[in-house]
């Protein structure tokens, strides 16, 4: 009798413990989601801040009235409300790409082609581990291809042609196992790609 009562009270207190853990887990989860959501929003605003010319006014929708998932040219995942695609192609945009782009950690597709972006491709691009498609062609990017690109292990399509890039094509690009297409014509690059 006494034994079963004790095991009952033990299981009751472990139930309490379990619900406390449960509660804590959910609070942390909610906090994490909130923080990450804000990270994407901040990153997009930093990107906007570095765009110096926007003749079509496409960045006007990137304002606090709307959730960033409703901003023009931004696509979010339906479940987690993180940015998965950014399509700023052919919008006559000038300026540079903010290093904050690397904080868009759920980004899978980045289209920046056919604009007047200049300065260097930020090293932080290598932080986007989910990136599959990277279109930078037909711009005025200068400097070297950042070696951090090797960290984008999911990269499938990588188009760089028609920029002002210099230096060597990183020899290890062939280590990107999923890479199917790469283009870098009309730059001042030297070197060969090995392993493809
Ligand atoms: C925010 O963007 C929306 C969509 O383009 C626009 O209708 C609204 O006027 C903008 N708000 C401000 C304060 O600019
Ligand atoms: C490049 O962008 C301009 C401006 O939006 C557009 O008129 C032109 O058709 C685009 N070119 C290509 C090849 O997409
Ligand atoms: C985002 O990126 C910038 C520059 O890479 C960095 O300084 C910042 O701490 C990052 N994190 C957040 C949450 O904005
Ligand atoms: C790739 O990522 C690793 C781990 O985060 C980091 O230590 C390394 O410096 C990165 N490589 C480059 C070239 O950025
Ligand atoms: C590319 O090389 C050519 C010939 O050496 C040179 O005239 C041109 O200025 C270079 N362009 C860049 C962006 O370095």
Bound small-molecule species = 2-acetamido-2-deoxy-beta-D-glucopyranose
Instruction: Supply the CATH architecture.
Output: Alpha-Beta Horseshoe
Overall number of structural domains: 1
**Straight-line N-to-C gap:** 73 Å
CATH class: Alpha Beta
Defining key terms:
binds 2-acetamido-2-deoxy-beta-D-glucopyranose; transmembrane helix; LRR_dom_sf; transmembrane; 12 strands; 1 helix; about 25% helix; 6-stranded mixed sheet; about 200 residues; alpha/beta; Leucine-rich repeat, LRR (right-handed beta-alpha superhelix)
Task: Please outline what is shown here.
Helices cover 24% and strands 19% of the residues. The chain has 196 residues and is α/β, with parallel strands linked by helices.
Describe what you observe in this structure.
- With 196 residues, this protein is of the alpha/beta class.
- The chain has one domain: Leucine-rich repeat, LRR (right-handed beta-alpha superhelix) (Alpha-Beta Horseshoe), CATH 3.80.10.
- Helix content is 24%, strand content 19%.
- It contains 1 helix and 12 strands.
- The radius of gyration is 23 Å and the shape is globular.
- The protein starts with a helix and ends in a 6-residue tail after the last strand.
- Mean pLDDT is 85; it is low at 1-8.
- The chain binds 2-acetamido-2-deoxy-beta-D-glucopyranose (5 copies).
